[in-house]
Amino acid sequence: MTFEPPADDLETGTRLTPRFGSDGLVTTITVDADSGEVLMLAHMSALALHRTLKDGVATYWSRSRNELWVKGQESGHTQRVVEVRVDCDQDAVLLRVRQQGGACHAGYHSCFYRRVDGGRLVTDQKPEFDPAAVYGSTE
C-alpha cells in the first residue's frame, strides 16, 4: 500500500512530492531556458532529482544503462539547470537549462531533430558534432 498525498496538496500545495512510477522514475522534459526549444525527454529517479536540485546540473536515470547519468559527463555537453518545474499532479518534471553543446547523442542540438511528414521522418536540423568523435565508435 502506498501513501497518496491529498490532491489539494499535490496540485496547490508547496511540498515537492513527485509521483514516481512503479519503475521508480518520473518523466522529465528538458527545454532550452532562453528559446523554449524542447531538447530532450528522459527520466529521473529520486536520487537523480535530488542531485539535480542540489548540484544545479541535470542528472537523469539511464534506463538503457540502468544507472545515474549526469548529462555531459562523457561528452562535455552539460546542462546547467536554470529552473525546475513540476506539472499539476507532480508526475512530470520540466527542466529549463542552459545547454553547452548538443543535447542529443546522435549529434544534434535537440533530440527532436526530425518531424513526421506524410508518414516519413524528415530531418530539419544539421548535426552540431560527430558522435563517433565524442563517444568513440558507435558500433
Describe the protein in words.
The protein has 139 residues and is an alpha+beta fold. It has one domain: Ubiquitin-like (UB roll) (Roll). The protein has 3 helices and 8 strands, in the order H-E-E-H-E-E-E-E-E-E-H. The protein has a 4-stranded mixed beta sheet, with helices on one face. It has a two-stranded antiparallel ribbon with strand order 3-4. A two-stranded antiparallel ribbon has the order 7-8. Strand 3 (59-62) and strand 4 (67-70) form a beta hairpin. The longest helix has 10 residues, at 46-55. The protein is globular, with a radius of gyration of 16 Å. The mean pLDDT is 92.
Main attributes of the structure:
four-stranded mixed beta sheet; 8 strands; 139 residues; Ubiquitin-like (UB roll); 3 helices; alpha+beta
List the helices and strands and how they pair.
Elements: H1 7-12, E1 26-32, E2 38-44, H2 46-55, E3 59-62, E4 67-70, E5 79-86, E6 92-99, E7 114-117, E8 120-123, H3 131-135
Parallel strand pairs: 1-6
Antiparallel strand pairs: 1-2, 3-4, 5-6, 7-8
List unreliable stretches of 5+ residues.
none
Structural class: alpha+beta
Main sheet, how many strands, which sense, barrel? 4 strands, mixed
Number of domains: 1
Per CATH, the architecture is Roll
Overall body shape: globular
Query: Share of helix among residues?
Result: 10-25%
**Would you list the SSEs in sequence order as H and E?**
HEEHEEEEEEH
Strand order of the largest sheet: 2-1-6-5
CATH top level label: Alpha Beta
Mean pLDDT: 92
Q: How many separate helices?
A: 3
